[in-house]
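Sample pair:
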Amino acid sequence: MIDRMRFSQLIDGISKKPGRPQIPTRPGIKELRRLYVDESKSIRDVAAELNCSKDMVARSLKKHGIERRSRTSNKKLADYSMENLVADVQKKGIRGLARELGVTEGAIRSHLRKLD
């Protein structure tokens, strides 16, 4: 039979379950504006930099009233007229124009498909 002293030593050696993990602090509006709006970082990049989840960043954006960027439309291409886009692709090529505008080649291709 185990005496009380030995029993308490055994119990102390067993680690307790930590329970629900502590919620990290919610990103502030200044941090979100700087990273997401001013520096145009993605939600994942903002989350990695602030050491929190992407869901936390998305909820914080909503809470602070910061509008999320659309995944489908690219601002840099939306402001570009179709005639100019086609002409520049013919002159510079898709890769050259993508580098100049700071977008992916896929974004230009998908924008050009909308023409058809």
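The two ends are 84 Å apart (CA to CA).
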